[in-house]
Structures are given as C-alpha cells and as structure tokens.
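Propose amino acids for all 443 sites.
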C-alpha cells in the first residue's frame, strides 16, 4: 500500500472520493477493488451522462474515466467537467490504450490531467492517483488561459490547459511510452530466448530423426533377407516340387506366404522412406521413352489385375521421351497402378493416359474404386496415412506408398495430383518435366 499521509496538501483518504466512469462492469469492479483496498471512497458511474450528474451531486476529489463509452465518451466528459466552473478543479485521469498519438492531443484539448494506459498494474495506478492528489493543490493557482495552437498530423489543435496539467499529461504520456518500451524490450528478450530454445530443439529433433532413419534403414535391411527366404521357401513348398502337402498344410503355407509378402512390402517401403528421408536418394536421370516405361509396368500389373477380372485401358499421346530414373519412376507407376488394382472392386476398369502438358508430361491413372473423401485427400500423401478404402483382395497396405511416390516425383522436379469423389473412383496423376540431360541427381 502506498503511504500518503505526510503531505498536508493531500486530503485524508476517508475524505477522498474517487468517481470511476467505466461502462465495463468487470473493469469498474477491478478499479473499485484496488482503490477501496487503499481506503479511498469510491463511486461508480456507467457512462458520461451519469458521471456528470454524479460529479455535481457528490463533488468527487478525482475522476478516473474510460475513453470509449456509449452516449458520451471520456474526452467529452472531461471537456464538460473542465468547462464547468464548479467542477473544473477536479483532476481527471483518462484510461487509454494510448495506441494513437492523437490521444495525447485529444486529452490536452479536453483538459485531462493524466493518462493511465491499459492494462495497468495495481501499484502503478495507486501511485498515479497519489501523485495527482498530491499535486492537486499546486495546480489550483496556475490556471492560465495560455491558448497555444499546435499543428499535428495535418490538424490544428488549440490547447488551453494550464501549465502543470500540460506537463503532467506529457510526462504521463512519456512515462506510458517508456513502460511500453520496457515491456517491448522484455518481450523481445523473451522472444529471442524462445527462438534460441526452438532452434536447439529443432537441431535435437533433426539428430533424433537421423538416428531413427539410420535405425529404420538397418532394421529393414536386416529383415529383408530372412523375409525373402520365408516367402521363397513357402512358395517352393506350395509348388508341390518337394512332395505334396495336405489341405491343412497348404492353408498354413499360404498364410505364411501372404504374411511374408505383407512384411516384405512394409520392409521395402521402410527402406525407401529411410533412404529418402536421410537425404541419400540418388536418381540416375537417363533419357528414355515414358510410354515404354508405363507399358512395361502395366504388363506386370496385369497379372494381379486379371486375378480380379480388372481390365486396364491405355490412351497415350505420341511417343513421349522424357528424362527420369527408370527404376524409381517404375516404382511410382507400380505404386499408383497397384493401388488402383488393390482398392478397386473385381470386374471394374482402369484407364491409364499420358499427355503432353505445359510443364512436361502428365501420367494419369483413373479407377472405378471406392473413391476418397475430401478430408482424407489432404493427408493420404503423408507417411503411414491410410484412408477408409481397404484392399479388396487382402493385399498388403502400409500407408507408405503414396508418400514414396510424392517424394520420388518431387525429386524429379515434378508434382502429384489426385481427384476423387466417394463412390466415383479416383484419378491419381503425376507431372514431370521432360527436358534436361542425363545426370545423377542426389536429393
Ligand atoms: P497403402 O496402399 O500401402 O495403404 P498408400 O500410401 O499407397 O498406402 O495409400 C494410402 C491410402 O490411400 C490407402 O490406405 C487407401 O486408403 C487410399 N488410397 C490410395 N489409392 C487409392 C485408390 N486408388 N482408391 C481409393 N483409395 C486409395
């Protein structure tokens, strides 16, 4: 609490009545709480009109008014107080956000004695009230009709306030600016610290990510050979070359074979992701026929498509020569074609087209599958993201295929696109530039 009893000019706290003018009930109550704790008497008015009536009735020692209020704002209330000979000596403190320099002029014009910027600390407010009350007597004899004219922001302002009031107001404006400046400096320091902390965390995360990729790569690599063996040997046993197997044994072997198949798909995808993510994906960019590459992949895919009685149709522009990594681009086509077969119902059709477009060549694969909802479309190219569609014949699904497709296409300087509606099939496309020399590119 602030001690303010030594100055003979300062009225006893019990005799000091503060009129709060504030349309917000919570802010008014907050102010009342602070001032009553300091043992001031407090009266509250909810707007300028009510405040004027109240001021005439109870002759407060001090008025603290908000600026933005309905009916009559704080400036107008202050102007009326300062032009009323019976009220003009009551000091007026305006509560302002002081975000506009014009507020200083408006406050000078209306004759306000002091600013307090919102949000204010309790100590600051109590100090200011004390300061105003202590200096109240000083200003009594200094009412001079100075009538200075000042130009600011293209407007003439006539200020008729007395000297102490002008100085007080300017000091309080300066003080508020200083407080704001200190707050800004503090915020700046905190921001810098947060930035450094974030940078440290980002570096740490990057290290952990590299470690994860290394581990992923090693684990996938070591799991690959035993899985290939399990799949191969189960196939051999199923082929009856090593003797016939019983129906029950056949069932078990088929389960082993399809489980090994699924695990191998996952391990291969993990290996790809770890290579791409660790930044060691190297593309052997050679010139070659895009049509030829796509046709080759369709030939392989037809085997699984036929099992589902799915027919694949093609529509290609004339021979298109491009520049791509044959193996990786083949992987892109395999993934997209494989998905079209995997998620489509038996007996449906798939259309593959290649067209020349402004940016290069566009390869599109359209299916008559279940389609993908708009919400899911936004995330299916992310790692481990699976949508509602499920493989129609128990094929493996890792949620990594499209992430790999996107990364390989982007490494070629291209982009992927998807258009789909639930129940209406999907069209996945990728566009790659055609120009460029045969080089090795590592990304
Ligand atoms: P995976 O097929 O191994 O699950 P992908 O990354 O290739 O992983 O696909 C992600 C998800 O996108 C799939 O799980 C599937 O739900 C959906 N999806 C992909 N292609 C199609 C398609 N042609 N039709 C319907 N849904 C698809």
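Proposal:
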């Amino acid at each position: 609490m602030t001690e303010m009893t030594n100055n003979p000019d300062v009225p006893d706290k019990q005799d000091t009545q503060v009129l709060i003018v504030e349309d917000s009930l919570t802010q008014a109550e907050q102010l009342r709480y602070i001032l009553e704790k300091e043992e001031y008497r407090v009266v509250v008015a909810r707007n300028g009109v009510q405040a004027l009536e109240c001021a005439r009735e109870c002759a407060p020692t001090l008025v603290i008014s908000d600026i933005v209020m309905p009916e009559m704002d704080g400036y107008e209330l202050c102007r009326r107080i300062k032009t009323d000979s019976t009220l003009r000596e009551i000091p007026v403190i305006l509560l302002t956000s002081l975000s506009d320099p014009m507020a200083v002029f408006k406050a000078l014009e209306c004759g306000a004695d002091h600013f307090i910027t919102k949000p204010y600390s309790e100590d600051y407010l109590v100090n200011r009230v004390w300061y105003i009350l202590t200096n109240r007597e000083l200003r009594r004899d200094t009412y001079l009709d100075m009538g200075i004219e000042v130009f600011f922001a293209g407007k003439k302002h006539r200020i008729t306030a007395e000297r102490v009031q002008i100085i007080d107001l300017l000091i309080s404006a300066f003080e508020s600016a200083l407080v704001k400046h200190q707050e800004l400096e503090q915020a700046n320091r905190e921001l810098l610290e947060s930035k450094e902390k974030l940078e440290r965390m980002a570096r740490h995360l990057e290290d952990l990510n590299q470690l994860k990729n290394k581990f992923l790569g090693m684990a996938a690599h070591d799991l690959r050979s035993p899985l290939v063996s399990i799949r191969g040997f189960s196939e051999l046993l199923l082929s009856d070359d090593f003797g016939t197997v019983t129906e029950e044994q056949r069932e078990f072997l088929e389960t082993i074979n399809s489980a090994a198949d699924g695990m191998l798909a996952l391990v291969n995808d993990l290996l790809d992701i770890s290579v791409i993510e660790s930044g060691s994906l190297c593309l052997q960019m050679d010139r070659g026929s895009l049509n030829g590459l796509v046709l080759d992949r369709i030939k392989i895919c037809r085997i699984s498509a036929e099992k589902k009685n799915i027919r694949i149709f093609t529509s290609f522009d004339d021979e298109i020569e491009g520049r791509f990594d044959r193996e990786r681009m083949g992987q892109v086509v395999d993934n997209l074609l494989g998905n079209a077969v995997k998620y489509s119902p038996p007996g449906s059709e798939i259309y593959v087209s290649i067209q020349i477009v402004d940016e290069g060549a566009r390869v599109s694969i359209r299916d008559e599958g279940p389609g993908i909802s708009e919400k899911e479309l936004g995330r299916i190219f992310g790692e481990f993201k699976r949508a509602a569609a499920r493989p129609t014949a128990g094929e493996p699904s890792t949620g990594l295929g499209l992430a790999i497709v996107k990364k390989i296409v982007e490494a070629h300087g291209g982009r992927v696109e998807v258009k789909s509606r639930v129940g209406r099939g999907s069209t996945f496309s990728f566009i790659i530039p055609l120009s460029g020399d045969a080089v090795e590119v590592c990304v």
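Residues 335, 339-340, 343, 367, 369-370, 372, 380, 385-387, 389, 397-403, 426 surround adenosine-5'-diphosphate (CB under 6 Å). Residues 1-6 have pLDDT under 50 and may be disordered.
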